[in-house]
Write a structure and sequence with these properties.
Strand content: 5-15%
Number of helices: 17
Structural class: mainly alpha
Distance between the termini: 70 Å
Order of helices and strands: HHHHHHHHHHHHHHHEEHEHEE
Strand order of the largest sheet: 3-4-5
Largest sheet: 3 strands, antiparallel
Radius of gyration: 28 Å
Number of strands: 5
Length: 538
């Protein structure tokens, strides 16, 4: 029956099929093989199949350049992409990494990505990430998402894949992630895995294995990792300058992904624990309220009276729970659940007691529960974990900026990381305007720098500060018998908010020329000029 169908009908059927299904069909039917792999129809069909699974890499000039110049983009010639082979490479990666059998993943990796080619797997993952974008919002699709990000979510949410790829177990046969090997700054595989881990966020292995925190702390609090030749930051050290050479090149600024990974793990695990503590507070508050309600009902029953009406008064705002410092949890996990309790330090006997809250789902949403500012990032996907979440609550980017979803990959994060450590501000709610402005500003109508803020600096950020006791820090770095590890040691933390405002783009602000931007900290991209900003801390 299919072999007698018009070509248009066949193509429509093929376009609604998975590439794996088409490959199976082509093996059992000659007509299907000719239609699927024939030269007359091959690239046209497979390009459409590619766009069913991935964002269009040719629609954006910058992304088009990245895609066409990448060695993993297979081309028939300089101008035409071989869509069949390019899609086949990605679907093969999907088939390798989506199985739940760790041994099978390892065997498939050995077959398709042997030792000398293993780095290509990371290159392909980063190519998919770098070419991710979403379509413009429309009435039918007000919150478009990226197909590339959905593809990566499907791959990297698999625990065996996290173990083999994010934690760099790779083709090895050990039973633990090779955290200890992350000290190598120059191994490209170590750097690639650390970069992917930093972008992705926390995994179940990070949370369940105490040694993870210990190794991350040991890297973060080792003073030898902070020197002038690496700008006291997570950068690969530059060679020490030769005093006998007068004119030396300016030092480079290459990211040390293993060290940045350690820093992100320390902060991410703190945020995870803060989130868990907040959940415990909310759960305890709910249990206390239910117990109080049951006591009231029981007392009313014993007195042969009707149960009191304890429904929520929607006009009443519950008092904030007096906690210092305010525990942090992802905004969409706590905005509906708070403890209704008077602050004992501010209680006024003349005031009426607050309305008893019994139905948690009817609690009014306050922009700043528990002393926490408005959501820095509306994380999607967290609703799968807990019953208490905030639905469709927008996040802010800057003045008068509102968005409900965040379509950019790194800022959007991936599903398993969203509730834990990915707290970047939504920079890419829409593409920034090109700099410099085509119409210069004037004293009466200055240029709106938020429109050109390509990095999303302006707006509200979360700042997390963690530190060891000074005596322990000194002992760890300078003592003759330093502690072997830091996983069981206490660590302090502070959570605060920053309100940042862009004051200049490109050139330093007119009132401050004392902070020139070193060449090594600048990008070579014309559309990525330096951004100067100021802010206030709460």
């Amino acid at each position: 029956m299919l072999d007698s169908s018009p070509p248009e009908i066949l193509d429509r059927i093929f376009l609604h099929s998975d590439p794996i299904e088409l490959a199976s069909l082509a093996r059992v039917a000659r007509f299907a093989h000719e239609r699927i792999y024939g030269q007359n129809n091959q690239q046209h069909l497979w390009q459409k199949l590619f766009l069913n699974h991935f964002d269009d890499p040719l629609s954006n000039p910058r992304i088009r350049s990245i895609f066409l110049q990448h060695p993993l983009t297979i081309k028939q010639n300089e101008q035409h992409v071989d869509w069949l082979k390019t899609l086949t490479t990605r679907i093969t990666l999907r088939q390798i990494l989506t199985t739940a059998d760790d041994a099978l993943i390892r065997d498939r990796l050995i077959k398709h990505y042997p030792d000398h080619r293993f780095h290509q797997l990371y290159d392909l993952l980063f190519l998919i990430l770098d070419t991710a974008h979403s379509s413009s919002p429309s009435p039918l699709n007000p919150n478009p998402t990226s197909l590339n990000i959905s593809f990566l979510e499907n791959l990297l949410s698999n625990p065996p894949t996290q173990f083999r790829i994010i934690h760099f177990a790779g083709l090895n046969h050990q039973h633990n992630p090779i955290y200890a090997h992350r000290a190598s700054l120059y191994d490209p595989l170590v750097a690639a895995a650390a970069k992917l881990h930093t972008i992705y966020g926390l995994t179940s292995l990070d949370i369940d294995r105490p040694r993870t925190r210990g190794i991350a702390r040991e890297s973060s609090y080792s003073i030898r990792n902070y020197k002038p030749n690496n700008f006291y930051g997570p950068f690969i050290p530059n060679p020490d300058p030769d005093p006998d050479v007068p004119d030396q090149p300016e030092p480079t600024c290459r990211v040390s992904w293993p060290h940045l990974e350690a820093l992100s793990l320390v902060v991410g695990l703190h945020l995870y624990m803060l989130r868990r503590e907040t959940q415990d507070i909310l759960a305890a508050a709910k249990d206390e309220q239910e117990a109080a309600d049951n006591d009231q009902i029981e007392a009313a029953t014993n007195d042969e009276q009707e149960p009191p009406n304890v429904m929520v008064n929607p006009d009443m705002q519950p008092q904030r729970h007096n906690i210092h410092p305010a525990p942090f949890a992802m905004p969409n996990l706590i905005l509906r659940h708070r403890r209704a309790q008077l602050d004992p330090n501010q209680t006024n006997n003349d005031q009426e007691p607050p309305t008893i809250m019994t139905n948690v789902d009817e609690l009014p949403v306050d922009p700043a529960p528990l002393g926490i500012p408005y959501p820095i990032l509306q994380h999607q996907g967290a609703e799968d974990e807990l019953d208490h979440e905030l639905e469709n609550e927008p996040a802010r980017r800057g003045p008068d900026r509102v968005l409900a979803q965040i379509p950019w990959p790194i800022l959007n994060s991936l599903r398993s990381a969203r509730p834990f450590s990915q707290l970047m501000h939504p920079a890419y709610d829409h593409p920034p305007l090109p700099w410099p402005p085509t119409i210069p500003g004037s004293p009466t109508r200055p240029v709106d720098l938020n429109q050109y803020d390509w990095a999303g600096v302006g707006g509200q950020w979360l700042r997390v500060v963690t530190f060891l006791d000074y005596r322990l820090l000194y002992e760890f770095n300078f003592d003759q018998n330093p502690p072997g590890n830091l996983e069981q040691r206490d660590e302090a933390r502070r959570v605060m908010t920053l309100d940042l405002k862009v004051v200049s783009i490109g050139d330093p602000p007119e009132d401050d020329h004392t902070h020139p931007v070193p060449l090594c900290l600048r990008t070579d991209l014309i559309d990525r000029p330096p951004i100067f900003f100021r802010g206030t801390l709460e």
